[in-house]
Design goal:
Radius of gyration: 16 Å
Number of strands: 0
Order of helices and strands: HH
Number of helices: 2
Number of domains: 1
């Protein structure tokens, strides 16, 4: 298995995009808001998660391809 080193900010961004994506999907299926509010909030969170995932995914894949190996102590 390959190891990829990510900084804490990079890891936080990845986790945040996953949370936004999951929150958007959850709101799309929730019944607590009006239909219009739910759909608007859900789609905005979902799209924010998708759009922000693309550059972060490329960052991770580029690190993996470049062969950045972790420092072994």
């Amino acid at each position: 298995m390959k190891e990829i080193r990510l900084t804490l900010p990079q890891l936080s961004l990845l986790a945040g995009t996953r949370a936004a994506l999951g929150g958007g999907v959850a709101l799309l299926f929730a019944d607590r808001l009006s239909n219009r509010q739910r759909m608007t909030a859900g789609w905005l969170l979902f799209l924010a998660g998708v759009v922000s995932t693309i550059p972060l995914g490329r960052l991770v894949l580029d690190k993996r391809r470049s062969g950045d190996s972790p420092c072994r102590d």
